[in-house]
Amino acid sequence: MGQQESMSVRVLDPVTTSPGLWQSMIAVLRRDLRLSVRQKQDLLNPLLFFVMVVALFPLGVSPESDFLREAGAGILWVGALLATLLSLDHLFRFDYEDGTLEQMALQPQPLFVLVLAKTLAHWLVTGLPLVILTPMLGMMLFLDGNSVAVLCLTLLIGTPVLSLIGSVGAALTVGLRAGGVLLSLLVIPLYIPVLIFGTGTVMAAAGGSDVSGHLALMAAILVLALVLAPLAAAVALKISLSAS
């Protein structure tokens, strides 16, 4: 019953009723957020996975405070990366299966704008909660206050990049039955620069270095992803739809 209700929301909540581009983007964003709230497992699974990765790492490697303080930024960044990857397969799949994605592709509004709205909704329900949980988990890994603050800032800049890059991979694999594995193979290599800069910024802050250059570089990556990723995802969706 709940699944039928969520599908009806996708069909009955039209994108084209709003006359302007901005209104259409807001309509898609609100619809995706409403669907995410109704499907609570999609909200909780990435968060639980993130907490489990961070909590189990000391048990499997070493509980020493000095080691955890040194490796804490990398642990949290890898956990956030994998948690984001866990939810990417559902970014376009439900809309693809019930035909809503085809309706979006036929709208007068540019498809990349609607893709950007869906990606923003994905970040709001996945990436932002990970950032909110980070201070508590950072204290569990014995990170100092300055390192935790810088780590939260890097995740606030970096997790939207993960969602944007992931949207391209999700668009390419949306029509495949076993798309989750291929999605991971496509996206993880593209995540490596964000992971390196994110952990490197925290390590530089822990060493007392100026991190303004690191943050500026991450912000530049975010701007580049904002410009290019929705366009690439829109093209990939059209290819996937034409091949289906």
From TrEMBL:
GO biological process, one term: cytochrome c biosynthetic process
Membrane topology: Multi-pass membrane protein
InterPro entries: Cyt_c_biogenesis_CcmB, Cyt_c_CcmB_bac
Keyword line: Cell inner membrane, Cell membrane, Cytochrome c-type biogenesis, Membrane, Transmembrane, Transmembrane helix, Transport
TM regions (residue ranges): 43-61, 73-92, 112-142, 148-174, 181-203, 215-237
GO MF annotation list: heme transmembrane transporter activity
Name listed for the protein in its UniProt record: Heme exporter protein B
Source species of the chain: Marinobacter segnicrescens
